[in-house]
Amino acid sequence: MANRSSGGRVKNKAPAPVQITAEQLLREAWERREPEKSKGPKQRIQDENELLEIRQRRRKEFEDKLRMNRTHIPTWIKYAKWEEAQLEFGRARSIFERALDIDYKNPHLWVSYAEMEMKHKFINHARNIWDRAVALLPRVAQLWFKYAYMEEMLGNIPGTRAIFERWMKWVPDDKAWNSYVRFELRYGQVDRARKIFERFLIAHPIPRTYIRYAKFEERNHERDLARAVFERGVQETDASQPEYLELLLQFAGFEERCGEVERARFIYKFALEKAPEDKKEQVHSLYSSFERQRGGKIAIEESILKRKREEYEKWIQKDPYDYDVWLDYCLLEEEFSSDPETVRNLFKRAVSYQPPPQKRFWKRYIYLWIYYATWEELNMQDLDRAAQVYRDALQSIPNRHKDFTFKKLWILAAKLYVRQKDMTSARKLLGTAIGMVKNNEKIFREYISLEVALGEIERARTLYHKWIEHHPYSSKAWLEYANLEISLNEIERARAVFDLAVEQTELDAPELVWKAYIDLEIEEERLDLARSLYERLLEHSQHVKVWLSYANFERTYNHDKDEVAREIYRRADRALANAIVDLSANSRSQGSSDQVDPQLLTAKEDRATLLREWLAFEQEMSSRETSALKQVQDKQPQKVKRRRPIFDSFGENVGWEEYYDFIFPEEAESGKAPSLKILQIAHQWKKQKTEDS
């Protein structure tokens, strides 16, 4: 509220911060309204004249409403019921008749009219109304039901039957027929009910009608008649009708209840044939449950097998190149089928669908051939057929194995020849594979393992020679050849193999060959030869791992391990430091100052690793040598975090990333690491401030 002074004047004439609208006032008034609690006054009638006056006024109100809207049937019904309440039955009938003249097709109007007569026991009037109603509206089931119910409540059974007969001439739906049947059964008229069902079948020849008729006969313990009804239903109805399957299942259930197991089994199988695809699972479930209760294990397995076959055939029709489905289908037949030709024909069907000539499509397909051959060998004990399957599989690969092949297939076929004791065919097949397969190292390995197992060492050596001729840079070939000679205790031969191997300039994994060669000499306790191998290896590679391995070797096998190992650490440090200097000079001459040479970072990390291992070594020996420990501690680098730009494929700067760099003492003294000087100054300032405080 606005502030007012003592004199009544307004002090603040500015508008309020929140303005109240008329709409808000009306809404608040409506929300805060109190519910109406007032009721109309009770009216007491003193004499007959006053009653007549009130009736006259009330009739006038109803007539006025009807003049405004003559077609509003609820007003007519209210008007008639009011007259009924005044016991003016003649007036009420008149009002109903006037309403029927307007809309005789309204069932609710007829029902209200007849219920008024029934309520006050004017039975003949009610019959007259019902007769008129069903004559005018014979398709309205409610009128027939109400009429028949009234006559049955009055005990007029012949009249009720006559009403149903009049109704049935109009061929109503199945609810009317079922009501007629239940009416006759309530009074024990079974023969009449049976005749009604026969007429019901003529009016509605659908599976649902046959099911109800058969259940009726079964409840009356007439099994033969019920079976006859079911058989008529199966023959007289069309299998395309939606309830035909339900008729078959009900028929099977009936035979099951009667103890006719074979009949029920036959009907279930017939239902499986007639069932649509979306209902087969339901029928299979019911049939399986029936077989578990009434049948044996064989019948259950046949049911399951039949269902699974149908499922697999359906999947194959959708995609005949889904080899996983083919494989599962073949395994199913292998497990349950008693006819080998069935399984063999299914395998032949499966492998007849060849995929496109790309290897990624053949990876699953080739397993079908392998399983086919395995089945012939293990289940049928027919090695000749299995060998023929492998030959067919190898011939099926397109372009004579030039584009792609499968080493597993060659090896399995060769092993089958071995199990047949046909070594000539096995060697011939593996030799052919070596000539046709490009990446044939696995073939060499299997071929050699076969010859070694047979004790044919010279043949194995010949194969190793061929392997090395085909793949002179394969470290696995050299290692396995040397390991063969070691296993035969031919150490000199093994040394010769290793010597030839380390002389190769482009081995794919030279570190494995050098390590195996050094381990051989250590195992043979030829430490001088092992040391010379380390020196030869350092001529080829100055990698930090080589230096650390050399130092650990001296620490382990040298009696004067302190000084010898320390000298190796010194040599390694000098070599790695020189590598860093060379890389730094090369980076400054060729690269930008913003870019970081990854080789330089790797070299620094390698030297930091070496110095860390050297420090651990000196700390282990510090009880006797403290000057050497101090020297190594002074060499330890400073690890700092830095940032470098990130460039995209177009050479544009897209951001920054952090990385760790190592600053060595000689680099800091030469002034090439300004960030390290700033860091040292910051440490000194922090130390000084701590001392002052």
Automatic annotation (TrEMBL):
Residues 25-50 have a biased composition (Basic and acidic residues). Keywords: mRNA processing, mRNA splicing, Nucleus, Repeat, Spliceosome. It holds the Pfam family HAT_Syf1_CNRKL1_C. It is found in: Nucleus. Its main location: nucleus. The keyword Nucleotidyltransferase does not apply. Residues 1-50 are annotated as: Disordered. GO terms for biological process: spliceosomal complex assembly. GO terms for cellular component: post-mRNA release spliceosomal complex; precatalytic spliceosome; Prp19 complex; U2-type catalytic step 2 spliceosome. Residues 75-295, 319-465 form the Pre-mRNA-splicing factor Syf1/CRNKL1-like C-terminal HAT-repeats domain. InterPro entries: HAT, HAT_Syf1_CNRKL1_C, Syf1-like, TPR-like_helical_dom_sf. This is Pre-mRNA-splicing factor Syf1/CRNKL1-like C-terminal HAT-repeats domain-containing protein.
